[in-house]
Specification:
By secondary structure, the chain is an alpha/beta fold. Helices cover 38% and strands 17% of the residues. Helix 8 (204-214) packs across helix 11.
Length: 279
């Protein structure tokens, strides 16, 4: 039986209608399943996290290679199917709930085709975790934003935050026809490897605050994008303008600045605010 027919049969059996709200698109391409497992380079020492285990097709293949698999699934209807399908595997732990809210045991690798609807929150959740590498299938537009170059259309807050915390590599394509129900867009397989920041910033929290602010106004000149930001420090408009105009790259636009250059801007802000004893 093909994976597509098996998915349809199992969903009928468990009386499950895929929910668009939960991003339930099931991977039915055996070659893509094998690619995901291959890229992860699994061995018996690995503890693998799978987010959105669905009907367990990928879970089975992970269990055959890894020492332990943590299969997380939010839909209780699918958890029933997972428990029955994965009964022969004593190295699989099924966790029912939202991966970002339930307690997750330690893991060193991630292999998943997560729902598109949680791509961004899951990505930022992972950036705050300690692991070796993640092999993930993301919608193409989201994946392109992870690896975008300064000045490009896709470059923004997500790019800078990711670059600061991880190395990202696009490994391959996943046509939309590889899923059922078929989504509207293609996907890309991405490798995410956490790393130490490639450059230093004086105040990391302020760095991310500034990144969030300036990319909401990515086409304005930097000084104009930053002036409203200084209101949180109770500066007068005159003081805010002076600080903004004294910063490096103040005449350039946020979308043109490399992550390292944004780091220098933030260091300049920290220096000015400290001299005024505001931080």
């Amino acid at each position: 039986m093909s994976l597509l027919n098996e998915v349809k049969s199992l969903l009928r059996h468990y009386r499950v209608i895929p929910k668009k709200r939960l991003g339930q698109n099931f991977l039915v391409d055996e070659s893509i399943l094998q690619e995901l497992v291959y890229y992860a380079s699994l061995n018996s020492e690995d503890v693998v996290l799978e987010v959105g285990a669905g009907l367990g097709f990928l879970t089975e293949r992970l269990a055959e290679k890894a020492g332990r698999v943590l299969a997380v699934e939010i839909d209780g209807r699918l958890v029933r199917a997972l428990k029955r399908r994965l009964r022969p595997y004593d190295n699989v732990t099924i966790i029912h709930g939202d991966v970002m809210k339930v307690k997750i045991p330690r893991f060193n690798k991630v292999v998943s085709t997560p729902p598109y609807s949680i791509s961004s929150p899951l990505h930022f959740w992972l950036l705050n975790k300690c692991f070796e590498q993640a092999i993930l299938s993301f919608q193409e537009e989201f994946a392109r934003r992870l690896t975008a170059s300064p000045g490009s259309r896709d470059y923004g807050r997500l790019t800078v935050a990711t670059y600061y915390r991880a190395e990202v590599e696009i490994l391959g394509a996943v046509p939309k026809e590889s899923f059922w129900p078929q989504p509207k867009v293609d996907s890309l397989i991405v490798r995410l490897k956490p790393r130490k920041p490639p450059f230093n910033v004086t105040d990391e929290k302020l760095f991310f605050d500034v990144v969030n602010v300036i990319f909401t106004q990515r086409n304005k000149k930097l000084r104009n994008a930053l002036i409203p930001f200084f209101s949180r420090f109770r500066l007068s408009s005159r003081e805010a303008v002076k600080i903004a105009e004294d910063l490096p790259f103040h005449d350039r636009r946020p979308r043109e600045l490399s992550p390292e250059e944004i780091g220098l801007v933030v260091d300049g802000i920290v220096k000015e605010l400290r001299s005024m004893r505001l931080i």
